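User: I'm putting together notes for a lab meeting next week and I want to include a structural view of one of the chains we've been expressing. I don't have a solved structure, so I'd like a prediction I can at least talk through. The sequence is below, exactly as it appears in our construct file.
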Amino acid sequence: MAFKEIDKERALITEIVAGNEQAFSILFFKYLPVLQSFAYKFTKSEHATEEIIQDTFLRIWLNRDKLEQVENVKAYLYKYVSNECLSHVRKKLKEEKAIDLLKNAHSDTENCTMDAIHLNEINRIVAAAVDKLPQQRKKVYELSRGEGKTIPEISDIMGVSPSTVKNTLVIALKNIRENLIQHGIALFLLVFIRIIK
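Assistant: Thanks for the context. Below is the predicted structure for the 197-residue chain, given as structure tokens.
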């Protein structure tokens, strides 16, 4: 990658860390073709590949603070997709084993979860996850994602150190991410960008 291209991508990452949804969309579509091809080699399934890519970018968006320390974005994305692919393969092997043991069991019972969940339900799940957060964690999340405040600004508002704000935000995002995963939600990019701010 040329130096000019590296600088351009670094600027894009800075925007993403700051919460710029358009910048995240640019990154998504830039690497989507190569990541889809890579994931498909593991899954041999377009549906599974789509879910893996969605889950990967959902996790990256929720943990975008970590992008500040990333030197090689492409390698970072490949690592995320690789982990999702391995999880998919393990899950598939477990399911196949269960089907062998239970001949009359119905397969693919979990594959239609996303199709059955409407946008309002997703909004409700995210809102419920935020409501369950402890007071300080909820306040930090709302100031950051709801009002678009920076970590230093939140630090001044709440009278705590920037590192405390950052750690609290990371934990809050992890809580929300886990809640989404528990509900089996794999969101299309433009949907989760609109929800997770």
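A couple of points you could mention at the meeting. DSSP finds ten helices and no strands in the chain. Confidence is low (pLDDT under 50) at residues 102-118, 186-197.

User: Perfect, that's what I needed.
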